[in-house]
Amino acid sequence: MNIIKGLKLIANGEKISIVKSLKWELLHSFFLGAPVGILLIVIWELFKEQPDRERIWISIVIMGIMLIFQFYFATKSMIVSNGLAYEISAAGRMKLGEHLRKLPMGFFKKRDPGDITAILLQDLNNVEMILSHSIGNLYAALFGTFIMSCFLFYLDWRLALALWIGVLACIPFILIGSALTAKLGGLHKKAINETNCRFLEYLLGIRYIKAFGMGGEKFQNLVAALERLRRQSIRTEAVPGPVVLLSLVFIELGFLGMAALGVFYLIGGTLSANVLIAFLILGYRFYEPLKIVTIDLIVLRYMKVGIDRIVDVLQTEPLPAPQEDKPLERYDIEFKQVSFSYGDEPVLHNISFTIPEKSMTALVGPSGSGKTTITSLISRFWEAEQGTIMIGGRRIQDIQPERLLNSISHVFQDVYLFNDTIYNNIKVGNKNATREQIIEAAKKAQCIEFIEKLPHGFDTIVGEGGSKLSVGQRQRVSIARALLKDAPILLLDEATASLDPENEIYIQQAIQELVADKTVIVIAHKLQTIKNADQILVLNKGRLVETGVHDELLEKNGLYASLWREQQMAKGWKMDSHLAAARTVLEGK
Amino acid sequence: MKERKKGLSRLLEIAGGKKKLLALSVILAALSSLLTLIPYILVYFIIKELTAPVVREDLIWKYIGWAAGAAVLCYLLLYASGIASHVAAFNILYELRKALADKISHLPLGFIQQRSIGAIKKILTDDVERIESFIAHQIPDFVKGMILPFLTIVYLFTVDWRLAVASLIPFVLVVILIPYSLIRKENKQLMKEYMDSQEKMNEVIIEFVRAMPVVKIFNQSVDAYERYRESVISFCDRVLYYLKKNMPANAFMISFISNNLLPVLAVGIWLYFEQKLELSTLLLFFILGVGYVKPLFALSTLGSQLYLVIQGVARMDEIFYAEEIPVTSTGEKPRDASIRFKDVSFRYQDSVTALDQVSFDIPAGSVTAFVGPSGAGKSTAAQLIARFWDVQEGQILIGGVDIRNIPMEKLYQMVSFVFQDSFLFHDTIYENIRMGMNVPREKVVAAAKAAQCHEFIERLPDGYDTRIGEGGVHLSGGEAQRIMLARVMLKNTPIIVLDEATAFADPDNEAKIQQAFSELMKGKTVIVIAHRLSTITNCDQIIVFHDSKVEAVGTHDELLNQSLLYKRMWQAHSRAKTFELRRA
User: Which of A108, A211, A405 faces B212 most closely, judged by CB atoms?
Assistant: First the structure.
């Protein structure tokens, strides 16, 4: 997708008047170039036998008037073209924002939020900056050069041609130079990445590096990478340099070639001195805008990378949603031969199960067995490739995405809170809740205990993402939120409780409150916790290997039973004192 | 203590490291500027010839030849100047980074612990990188920007001082008016509003993206989008308003800079008609005297760019000037692996008190647990044993010797630590265990076996020679932990500091990690930072931390009687352990 198309896609739908900007630029370029024309008239007069003084002075006055016009049009055109740049980027941001809103959750889980933010901020900032400067330069170059060319050709087509040959001669160098820059730029980036990696390794591992006395060796590795970066950086500058400069040399030589040609014609009598002098004066000006555009082209190439990223997001398909929004009557869940791969990696094979309404089902199994994937598919973060997932007897594809998400509460390990008060963060669960309902939710989620110790209580601001609260506190706020939402389906990761061993008991009580009267799916690590589940689904490597209740599964003596035994052993583990053991031995004697 | 330079002078100090190269670059840039002038002057001579009564053609050809030569030479010198300044810059960057990495290795481990690794890495990579722009671009650009106009105006003055003055008029006008417009309160206000609006929009955008998952789940995406949209539009409006107000000044500047043709023309024509000015001189001013001030205005953006660079350098200097771990050694040798804290008080840099007059004794070969609410000081105390920081008051003694008097290498030979963040190097598993220790392969394998990793290592494609990291394998949390344990077992130090939470990092592997712990602890002085109290009931000694102090010391049974805090923690833990989720 080239730049123009990309820009159109980004700005589409908003009223962007590129034509308006063109109009002002045209006028501005005219008045910008006019003085030169007047200059020529003056020079022409000066070369006559009897220069008409009056005419010259009138021309100068006209030039003065034109200066005022130029100032006016410069202002107008800069406002419009700069404004255009910012309008395009604002349109782009809104379009992206609207599109992001509609994308499936999986999109956000897959990408680092930093990347997406970078697109919305940096990439569009670059578009702004570049457009606001480049537009003006580009137009000035095009129009100014065009008008001047016409005039020069009229004066003497041979010399004008000579000037153009200079321009054309430098094009191959520009192309080669830019290709070289791109290639070396790639190598340079690699060297930078390698250095960054080594630095990261050095910093992350510094305590081990020091503890194991490997300072010398690891340091040398880092230094070697730095040396490679140094050399690559120099090469990236040194190699394309001559090529780019050569192109500029050719422009200069083009001008001088034209001068030489002019002298030649002068001597041969086919050219008058005036014309030659006119060319000498105007010739340098001719190249000015072109030099600026060359630089701009390189910068524009840079912008293309950003535009590609933006277009990539815009072209990601949102989830197909049904037209109608029919309410759900039941909240039982069914998986029918569901398979799912994450990219190339197969994650789930042919999974089928039924979860009755208001029951509690546990998903257990070694990590990587697919437990979290199942909950993600129920929430339609991703779309299963094969098989059907049904809620209340309807395929989830036939449920409005908003309604689906409204019916599900999530309590997982990653909690994101807004940079707002605790009160408002809980309120997110139900924006129509009353104050009593919010406080009640906080109570049930065992939050009151820490909220009353905070200086501003419920009105304490939690920082971005909730950074001012501890892990356990964030968990409880998120549970309060889910309590307030009171959705009929609950997806829960039981490990959240163990994130904060000190407050484990509180979080457990909060979770207990939450599971009342809902269809619950618990991802469990501690089998102890889910002994009482109505149904336990045992997964291994993406397959459903056992189902049943706790006692049945123990009897089966399969994977579940072995996991249970292992955990019981681990529970009983203690750190043994050596001295006590020794003492016991002595005392026992 | 040497006076620390700041700001621009610090930048220049850094640049001074490669004074000669930079001087060369500057001189070449100046010469190149001079040479850009030559073709113009030669064209003037050519025009002079062409308007003379007798045209000496051979002279004109000579001039053209010289002009061509000057053009080529000019760019050659420009290239050389650029290379010189870039080589200087890249060399300086190399040395700065090397020095920073070296400095970091001498800093207390706690320094890095406290800051975000990402932030430090950014300083080493991005902030240092920006210095390149200053050295390789801004310094030469500054020189070129100043010299060319200067040389031009000097030359013009030698040709005809009256026209030279005329050509300067607009420039002088602009120079007077710009500072005036910058200082004007209204402008500053506008600028501030613009920047504030941009910052606000940035914040809203960041939150919009980060909160998107939550927002979608709670069906607030429409609201969130409205907020987002509002701030985008508001910023756009503000920018357009700012442009409207600001552009006239900008346009004024640009118009006049590109158009000192008018005064030159007016004065020139007058002089030509009334004062017998030579035509060729007039023409010279048309060629050279117009627009020569432009390069100076390219310098105006220099200021804001410089600001960014200086900020980066300030951050970098925080590392450069941080206090290193003082290395003293009295040659005393610790007599055993016992540990003693004597009236230890410790404050972090942001003056948060972490430990307050803490004292306790740990006999050699015993197993001691540190427990307490988070923030109470247990982790800090454990880290101090490995000298992550130096204490402000009191002493920490190992085998009777103050740890500040033990050389760091010797200290590390006595103390190993196992913390939650497992880190493996981009190297083979074998090397990740061996860590440069001079031991035979059998010992490495034995350590791996004891740490319960031998089994999974053998299942890997290249076994012990499998590489970790990019292009290699990624181990799970629990597997990485066990490699770390193998390392520590191989090192076999008499004192081990252990964070018990590491066992739970990978619930699938909990049992295996516990087995590895048990092996590891045999015969050593062990300090455990404990979270799950049921694991430490058999320890020789439990130290209860609370609010930066030691609240109680004793065995499990003793503490149940003595310490209310311990009793409460124990009860909470016991209940949590037996918790069963019920369908209400």
Answer: A108
At B130-166, the pLDDT tens digits run: 888 888 888 888 888 888 888 888 998 998 888 888 8
Quick one: three-class SS letters along A252-298?
Answer: HHHHHHHHHHHHHHHHHCCCCHHHHHHHHHHHHHHHHHHHHHHHHHH
Q: Minimal CA–CA distance to B481: which of B433, B431, B428?
A: B433
Predicted TM-score of the model (pTM): 0.79
Q: CA–CA separation, B170 vs B290, rounded Å?
A: 11
Strand partners, B498: B418, B528
Q: Does A79 touch chain B (CB under 8 A)?
A: yes
Q: Are strands A394-395 and A386-391 parallel, antiparallel or unpaired?
A: antiparallel
Using an 8 Å Cβ cutoff, are B35 and A252 in contact? Answer: no
Token pair in block for residue A32: 């910008």
Say if A367 is an interface residue toward chain B (CB within 8 Å): yes
Q: Which of residues A353 and B517 earns the better pLDDT score?
A: A353
How many A×B Cβ pairs under 8 Å? 402
Q: Is the confidence at residue B171, as pLDDT, over 90?
A: no
The tens digit of pLDDT for each residue in A80-139 reads 878 888 888 888 888 888 888 888 888 887 777 777 887 888 788 877 777 777 766 777
B105 with A100: Cβ contact below 8 A: no
* CA triple B285-B289-B292, angle to 5 deg: 160
- Inter-chain contact B64–A575, Cβ cutoff 8 Å? no
CA proximity to A211, closest of B348, B349, B396, B484: B484
ipTM: 0.81
Rounded CA-CA distance B325/B381 in Å is 18
Predicted confidence (pLDDT) at residue A584 exceeds the cutoff of 70: no
- Say whether A537 sits in a helix, a strand or coil: strand
Residues 12-51 of B with CB under 8 A from A: 39-40, 43, 46-47, 50-51
Helices (H), A356-470: 371-378, 401-406, 422-427, 435-444, 448-451
**Among B residues 299-338, those touching chain A with beta carbons less than 8 Å apart:** none
Looking at residue A377, its amino acid is L
Q: Is A402 on the interface with B (CB under 8 A)?
A: yes
Token couple for A15: 């009223």
Which of B68, B78, B87 faces A256 most closely, judged by CB atoms?
Answer: B68
Under 8 Å between Cβ of B507 and A526: yes
Q: Which of A201, A253, A367 sits opposite B68 (nearest CB)?
A: A253
Contacts of B183 (CB under 8 A, 6+ apart): none
- Tell me the shortest Cα–Cα distance from A103 to chain B, in angstroms: 10
